[in-house]
Structure formats: structure tokens, C-alpha cells
Write a structure and sequence with these properties.
This protein is an alpha/beta fold. The chain folds into two domains: 2-96 and 190-276, D-Maltodextrin-Binding Protein, domain 2 (3-Layer(aba) Sandwich), CATH 3.40.190; 100-181, Periplasmic binding protein-like II (D-Maltodextrin-Binding Protein, domain 2). It has helices at 10-25, 38-41, 47-50, 58-66, 125-134, 147-155, 166-171, 206-216, 219-234, and strands at 2-7, 30-35, 71-75, 87-92, 100-103, 119-121, 139-141, 161-165, 178-181, 196-201, 243-245, 256-261, 273-276. The strands form three sheets. It has a five-stranded mixed beta sheet, sandwiched between helices. Strands 7-6-8-5-9 form a five-stranded mixed beta sheet, sandwiched between helices. A three-stranded antiparallel beta sheet has the order 11-12-13, covered by helices on one side. Residues 2-203 form the Porphobilinogen deaminase N-terminal domain.
Length: 282
């Protein structure tokens, strides 16, 4: 039996049920313990201002440490760059498209038209900075909550559109509301976006760990995510802000990392720079 810890939101449960289904198909029984985390409960303050890197993970890690659960399912982009002692990321599922999208009921929205005022809902420091830099005529509106809550706020008139990760929009089947896809080479996504990460205590039974990893881990996604996280950790950046890194595959595993330093007031502090990396050996 594999006991899985998860947040209660619809997107989190979609991810967890997908993981559970894969484990079940490989012959393992599963049970899900769902819960709300601090990041789910505090909705009147932006994540950047809460002050903790683990607002979506701390309670799930407490369950792992106590042995209540065997693994926890996370959106990889929610993971802090340095895990607390006693925990490890043991698998990464196949990564979805990494780019951001604009979602709206109004299919005529065009961000290139600077004469038309547009209000975009987002609480992300990164997204605000990129919108301010490339579309200075756009007004951003603070927007917290799960995907369904945000769309409800948009429908009630709080904003004209939402800037979201494509992966979550697709998984929740809101594809028909996408009015624009942002180029990931310009609107650089955060580390881990589009991928599901599996966390466990370092004391997890090795047989369970091996079975979970063999069933769930996608090697290409793992190499990509570990590279991004290692680069971020080296520069002491939090996964939420300060540095945006995305790893591009190149011929013979050569990669390049566009880097966008971002201040806490949602401003880009420098133009995009390309940092050459080393060849990866597998």
C-alpha cells in the first residue's frame, strides 16, 4: 500500500489521481490523504509576501516525516529550491508544455493593441514583471485562489483575462478559453512549471521507493528539472521569485539558461541573458 499526500484543490487532486492510477496499473494499491496547506488557506496576500518558500508543501512534509504518508504529490514549480533535511524528490512525471497562456471569455483581446485597456489577473511577481516589461499598457489585478476560483472572479468582472500556466489550464479542461499562448523564450516560465514532482522522506522503505520511481519517473523530465533546480540552488534563488530559469535542450545535451532577475516590486532588473551550460552526461 502506498499512501499519497495531496492538497485538496481540483488541480492538485487531478495530479494525485493521475499518479495513483499509474501506481494502481503497475500493481500497487494506493490511498490518498488530502489536506489544505497554508498557501491554500491564506488568499488575501500574495505568495511572495507570505514569506515562506514552502507554503504549499510544509504540511505535506509533516505527514511524510511522521510516516502518515509515503509520498507527496506536488506541482514541481511549488517546490523550494532547497528541501528541508530528511526529504528528497524521488520522481518527476513527463512534463507538459511549460509556457504561460492568457485565458478569457473575450476572444477579441489582443495585447498588441496598446489602445485597448486590458486588466489581467495574476498574483505572480514573475508574470507581473514580464507583462509590465513587454506590455506596459496592461493593468495587472491581484488574483489568488485555485483555478476555478480565479475564473469565477474573472467572470464576475474582477479582470478581463487571467495569465496562467498552460499545464493547469489543460488539465482542468479550460483549453477553449485560451486566447493567447506566450512564447516561453520571452515569457520565461519558473523552474519546474508543467511537471509533477514526487517527494518522500529519506527514510522511506527502499523497496517502495524503487517501485514508485520505476513506475512514475520520466528520465528526460528528471534531467531537465534537476538541472534547473541545481542552477537555481547555486544562485540561492527561491523558486517563487528573484530568478527565472528555464532549461532549453540543445544538440548533444548542450543547454542554455535564459536568466531574468526580478525584484519584489515586479520589475525586471536586467535584460534577458543567456548563460551557457555544460554538456550533460547520462
Amino acid at each position: 500500500m502506498i499512501t499519497i499526500g495531496s492538497r485538496k484543490s481540483k488541480l492538485a487532486m487531478w495530479q494525485t489521481l493521475t499518479v495513483a492510477e499509474a501506481l494502481n496499473e503497475s500493481g500497487m494499491e494506493t490511498r490518498i490523504n488530502s489536506m489544505e496547506t497554508r498557501g491554500d488557506r491564506i488568499l488575501d496576500v500574495s505568495i511572495a509576501k507570505i514569506g515562506s518558500k514552502g507554503v504549499f508543501t510544509e504540511e505535506l512534509e509533516e505527514q511524510l516525516a511522521s510516516g502518515t504518508t509515503d509520498i507527496a504529490v506536488h506541482s514541481a514549480k511549488d517546490m523550494q529550491s532547497r528541501l528541508p533535511d530528511g526529504f528528497a524528490l524521488i520522481a518527476f512525471t513527463k512534463r507538459e508544455k511549460v509556457n504561460d497562456v492568457l485565458v478569457s471569455r473575450d476572444g477579441t483581446i489582443d495585447l498588441e493593441d496598446s489602445s485597448r485597456p486590458v486588466r489581467i489577473g495574476t498574483s505572480s511577481v514573475r508574470r507581473k514583471a514580464l507583462l509590465r516589461h513587454y506590455y506596459p499598457h496592461v493593468k495587472t489585478v491581484e488574483m489568488r485562489g485555485n483555478l476555478q476560483t480565479r475564473i469565477g472572479k474573472m467572470d464576475s468582472g474582477a479582470c478581463d483575462a487571467l495569465m496562467l500556466a498552460y499545464a493547469g489550464v489543460k488539465r482542468m479542461e479550460y483549453d477553449d478559453l485560451i486566447v493567447m499562448e506566450f512564447d516561453e523564450k520571452t515569457f520565461i516560465p519558473p523552474v519546474g512549471q508543467g511537471c509533477i514532482a514526487i517527494e518522500a522522506s529519506t527514510s522511506l522503505d527502499t523497496a517502495k521507493l524503487s517501485r514508485v520511481r520505476d513506475c512514475l519517473n520520466d528520465v528526460d523530465s528528471e534531467v531537465c528539472l534537476l538541472t534547473e533546480r541545481a542552477f537555481l540552488k547555486k544562485l540561492e534563488g527561491a523558486a517563487l521569485y528573484r530568478l527565472l530559469v528555464w532549461r532549453f535542450w540543445r544538440v548533444m545535451r548542450l543547454f542554455f539558461m535564459p536568466v531574468l532577475p526580478v525584484s519584489m516590486d515586479s520589475r525586471l532588473s536586467a535584460e534577458k541573458r543567456v548563460v551557457p551550460g555544460k554538456m550533460l552526461k547520462r
